[in-house]
Amino acid sequence: SSPAVFFGEHQAGIVTPAQDRLHFAAFDVSSSASRENLIELLQDWTDAAARLVRGLDVTEEGAVGGPALKPPDDTGEALGLGASGLTLTFGLGPTLFRDRDGTDRFGLADRKPELLAELPHFSGDQLDAALSGGDLCIQACADDPQVAVHAIRNLSRIAFGRASLRWSQLGFGRTSSTSTAQQTPRNLFGFKDGTANIKAEETGTVDAQVWVGEDDGPDWLVGGSYLVTRKIRMTIEIWDRQSLDEQERVIGRDKGEGAPLSGGGEITEPAFSALGPDGRGIDVDAHVRLAHPTSNDGAKLLRRGYNYVDGNDALGTLDAGLFFIAYQRDPVAQFTAMQRRLAGSDLLNEYITHVSSGVFAIAPGIREGQHIAQALFE
Ligand code: HEM
């Protein structure tokens, strides 16, 4: 319960070993809010978040310590659950700096990072605009789903009148390891996911690929990062009718161990021109080949996604997939370049559809006595 989980050089929830549960929320700032209202909101969110990540109620009075004749400050459903590894990570969308119609609502247009732009349309995208974008975002990750939901619920409540929920997503089951101490989990296609991810212990790679550096600019974002979210629907019923051999060809790894089809074990580097012990190699359009740094000028991502199931449709098909989350230093050279390649010929495309998209600048870590993204307003 050390306050270091909230205050520090970088925000928590990025290189933090990925927790099991997610509630991700995107907000729109109210059209009547002023620059001062926005700053106050970030200040109020900071105060509440610093308490929530320690397992405390949002205020001192909290759920049951206030006057009996007023609604409690805290909604109460996390009483007794503790911190459960909660991290809260705050981001700023391109529309905060300049509206879709070009309005500079908060006097921030000249502080907008050049790399913070709406993502281009990728082949195959079927994005729902109502489930995409947002002026602000909060990623809440915890080992207990109710703790993550409680955090988003109370932060939304605090935002009342200043910002409102635009869309949100629950995820149950991480699809990435972000530490070498973690076992590789599996996605809903049944494959190990996160094997070749950037791990917190690889500090050189984290510095080179995740954190915005001093020469990158703008100054207020140094120590921050960029977040790309993509809700990717997976047509799991169609996938489940493919042979094991075909499923492994699509990914380029075997399903049991997660080893590359070119041979070796889970953490053996794939050899793209070699044949494995059973005579199979990695297909030219296999997902891991197109996503690998050798196909992307050395670019990598810190993936931190979650499985989701949002019920089912009238035909009895599960509405399920991957809520993809990736952190990076440069969204254009990293996510966008990679997704262009994947959208072109990835064998996975037959089984997936991107339905929502978001891009956010992730403020650097918050210093004690300061609020989220304080340097942006100075
Ligand atoms: C690797 C699944 C979407 C980027 C992998 C692996 C699996 C997988 C099973 C191999 C294990 C690993 O190294 O993690 C999926 C599924 C997706 C999806 C099911 C969609 C539902 C994406 C997207 C991107 C991406 C949209 C980025 C634009 C990567 C990268 C790797 C990877 C960078 C590591 C490649 C390497 O260095 O070997 N993915 N993925 N994936 N994926 Fe995906």
SSE topology:
Layout: E1 21-29, H1 35-52, E2 87-92, H2 94-97, E3 136-142, H3 145-158, E4 163-172, H4 203-209, E5 225-234, H5 236-239, H6 244-251, H7 287-291, E6 302-303, E7 306-312, E8 318-328, H8 332-345, E9 352-362
The structure holds protoporphyrin IX containing FE (HEM).
Structural overview:
With 378 residues, the chain is an alpha+beta fold. The protein has one domain (3-377). It has eight helices and nine strands. The chain has helices spanning 35-52, 94-97, 145-158, 203-209, 236-239, 244-251, 287-291, 332-345; strands at 21-29, 87-92, 136-142, 163-172, 225-234, 302-303, 306-312, 318-328, 352-362. Strands 1, 2, 3, 4, 5, 6, 7, 8 and 9 form a nine-stranded antiparallel sheet that branches. It is globular.
